Amino acid sequence: ADAGQAMDRERRPPFRDDSVRGMHAYDPQASPTEMRRLSGGLAGLYTEPALALDFQAYRPRDVLAFPADKDRTWRLPTELDPVRLMHNAIRAEVTKLEALLFKLGDDKLSRWQIQCIKDWWVGHRDHVVYHHAMEDAVLHPFVRSRVSYPADFRASHDQLNFLLRAVDRAICNRTFNRASELAPVWHGYRTSLYPLLAEEEAILIPLTRAYFTPEEYGAKIGEILRSAPKLALGSLLHHLQGGKEGAMSFLVRYGYEWMAWYRSVHATRTHYREHAESKLASLLVGAPVVCRHKDDLRIMKTLRPLELNRRLMLAPVASSEVSAMVFSQMATGRWLLDVGWGGRAPAGDGTETDGERERGDASSHSHSHPH
Questions:
Q1: What gap in Å lies between CA 4 and CA 186, rounded to an integer?
Q2: Which of 111, 180, 203, 275 has the fewest Cβ atoms nearer than 10 Å?
Q3: How many degrees, rounded to 5, is the angle at CA 291 between CA 289 and CA 293?
Q4: pTM reported for the whole predicted model
Q5: What is the rounded (10 degree) CA torsion for 150, 217, 223, 268?
Q6: Smallest Cα–Cα separation from 160: which of 133, 189, 183, 139?
């Protein structure tokens, strides 16, 4: 028993409060002002600021050359950190499609609707695969050049890839006629994705601010943005708050010239809206549409995110453990019983979102973690 408890402690991310309460849930009372202003339809696409790290668990590569004293040079709020904003775009995509799957339910899909889902999925899949490959090849080595941290995000990404492949098989390699047929595998994917993104934010954001100046970090982020695929960058820009001015300010912060928006970047956001967000809007309105402007996509704000399993979201284990458990249950079919998805409407009027209320069946069906 003692050995099992020791192994469990090793798997837990080293937070000061290892209950990790609130890490994965959207809480309007605790979130930044900009997040509190989100409409009910957007609530739940974002996560609140990560808990503080226990810095004793991390060791600088060279304490004299790279002391952890750069945090005082930062003025940018953590909710505007580029890693969090990239994750927000991914969370938004995943959450909106699940809300659409619920809305479409058991109705028989037409051929164009099925193709719409397939086309949108390919873009999202490539976005997530690129993002994780970028983190493994560029961002994590950059941070580790000054500080060692034990988290093995490559293993977490590999574990999530099992679920990505399961979703890919369900959408691209099999015949489906109803959105409800995709719901369990999509809910499992989202349940696994959210803890991973929050875990990365909880570790990377404090470390980059402790060991790098805004200028050093900004230069690396600028490199990442300039090499990003069109749909990935377009998704980030589309989901930024503040419209055109917010996007332009974001780009200038990371080394773009102000005129770059007009020369090329604006077209990147428009490309995303035409080839990705428009497909979700088409499914929502029930007819093919192509939207280029934000006003044309206002209907997307009517979507209501589904709750995630509170016990899984708040479990004090590494995100890879959650992914492994979800994948195992999906393989055995038990996940069909655990998701509590079938026919159940999103809670409340859209203002109560992921993890805010525990479903009545969570205690009887949820995975029990060792403590």
A1: 32
A2: 111
A3: 160
A4: 0.77
A5: 100
A6: 189
